[in-house]
Amino acid sequence: MNQLSESAATASGHKVCRYDGRKILLDQEGFLVDPSAWSEGVAVEMAREQGLEGLDEAHWVIIRFLRDYYFAHGKAPLSRDLKNGTGFSLLEIERLFPGGLKEGARRLAGLPNPRGCM
Amino acid sequence: MRKIGLHVNGIWRELVVGEDTVLLEVLREDLRLTGAKQSCDRKGQCGACTVILNGQAVRSCLRKAADLDGAEVITIEGLGTPDNPHLLQEAFVLAGAVQCGFCTPGMIMTAKALLDRNPTPSEAEIKKALSRNLCRCTGYRKIIGAVQLAGRFLRGESSPDQLRPNLTQGVLGVSMPRPTAYARACGTAQFTADLPSRGELHLAVVRSPHHHARIKGIDAGPAMTMPGVVGVMTAKDIRGTNRIKYLVPDQPVLCDRTVQVLGDPVALVVARSRSEALAGADAVQVSYEPLAAVRTPAEALAENAPSVHEGQPNLCSTQLQIKGDALAALEGAAALVEAEFSTQLIHQAPLEPEACVAFLEGEGEEARLIVIGRGINIHHHVMVLQGALGCEDLRYEEAFSGGQFGIKLDITSEALTGAAALHFGRPVRYLPTLTESMWMTTKRHPLSCRLRLGADHKGLLTGLEVDFTLENGAYTSWGNAIVLRILQMLSGCYHIPHVKAVGQLVYTNNAWGGAARGAGPPQMNFALESAMELLARKIGADPLEFRLANSLKPGQAISTGQVVDEWPFPGCLEALRPHYRRALSEAAAFKEGNRRRGVGIAGGSFGIGKAGPADKSTVAVELNPDGGITAYGSIADPGEGNDAMLTQLAAHATGIPVEKIRLVTRDTDRTPDASSASGSRATYMSGGAMLLAIEALQKAMGEIGAVTFEAAAYQQLVDAGKPVKYLGTKIQQTTPLDPQTGQGIPYESRVHGVQMAEVEVDLESGDLKILKMTAVVDPGTVINPLIVEGQIEGGLDMGAGMALREEYVHGETRDWVTYKFPTIRNSFESEIILLQTPRRKGPVGAVGVGEFVLLPTAAAIMNALENATGTRVYHLPATPNKVLAALAGAPGKA
Question: The pTM is what?
Answer without folding.
Answer: 0.95
